[in-house]
């Protein structure tokens, strides 16, 4: 073991490893990239985590680099859960510490998984309304802030977080939650008069206050920065959502949870063309479905070729699109909505409604999707969850068809109509040079297609190391922000993307002056540089929706 690992192990309760057998397991996440960390650490408590971060900070202050990457269960698909320095796993920080039934609050550590949390909450008739992989950690969900299928109704993980305990780059622990503007102003003024006793937290607020004052026009154009300071309140939480561990480390979380809804009932319908499917989805959206998913039927045709043939399609899977809706209202209301959906369908439509006698048919549809995701090469998502405006979806599918012909790929599209997030999963063999070259060619052209169709590559999840459109140099604005004709006419002049990037970099420096947290992620990412770390082997294990 290296002297560095030995030194750290003497000062923490947990473990730090540099053995090749351990490190090799943490060189990849769900992305197509591969980074080899120098050390892998497993802190046992918050004190361990603080010591690890403070050690990296102290090395950086002396000119030595040991960048920190935080990792939950490694489900990130943009390369944010891997790094070349000190990789810190939150696997041991996985306790559900407290459940407040009256206030519907739960306090957890960042390594708790969504599945384990909801299983524990279900015993009390509660749940965290986030539709994501059950093995995703709560810390990872906050770091990525994905727009999941339930975001339209419940607001996603960002709406659930009440308070965070957060470790800054020097190991200082601070609490992030809404504070009155008066209390923050008092903190800033007091520490300004007593600079010798200025805390890291006070310095953070003072520097952010100066940045916000100096760049008021840029702040107004940034959906995250514009929310952290209002007339009556300060709240740094919006900066943490989607930051992918580039600002600090989460050690404790208080979440607001909801009452368990009724068991969802689903409806599936087949459409011959995309426009008919989109018209139907637009018509049923006022019914407030829990989810509204759209699938290219080629997904199920490929599954049928591997023996998984849903009876719903008959002898063969037709060409077209599958729409799948779900409603979690009370039984009477759900039935009424399902009948209304049937009325909105064309007379000749093939439709399936979930009931005890059709439960197997829906299970078979789920199995077919799972089969598609795990056949014909490595189906790890290259670019998951891109945002596409509903009116540009036909243009996008036309562009996909051209991309399929150009690169000899099969790219059936699927995603959520409510969040307007979609994805394709081309299967490449990364063990072959031709497979890696094809992946790079696809990535560049796909990102450009999303941009050309008015979409956003960071609509569903942050940029990471991969979701960098060729013409994009700054973090995109929130694609869900509505702009009316009247507001567009009176809008301020467009802010330069380079200015927004510079401001975002200044905020990063305020939190992390020595740039120890994922320095080549998001703002520091370069697509060409990232692709030099393209992995040379296929990902092992089952890929799930």
Structure description:
With 545 residues, this protein is of the alpha+beta class. It has a domain of 90 residues: Uridine Diphospho-n-acetylenolpyruvylglucosamine Reductase, domain 2 (2-Layer Sandwich), CATH 3.30.43. The strands form 5 sheets. Strands 17-14-16-15-19-20-18 form a 7-stranded antiparallel β-sheet. The protein has a 5-stranded antiparallel β-sheet with strand order 5-6-12-8-9. Strands 1-2-4-3 form a 4-stranded mixed β-sheet, with helices on one face.
Short synopsis of the structure:
It contains 20 helices and 20 strands.
Gross CATH architecture of the domain at 3-92: 2-Layer Sandwich
Mean pLDDT: 90
Uncertain ranges: 471-493
Helix amount? 25-40%
Structural class: alpha+beta
**The CATH topology of the domain at 3-92:** Uridine Diphospho-n-acetylenolpyruvylglucosamine Reductase, domain 2
What coarse outline follows from CA principal-axis ratios? globular
Oligomer: single chain
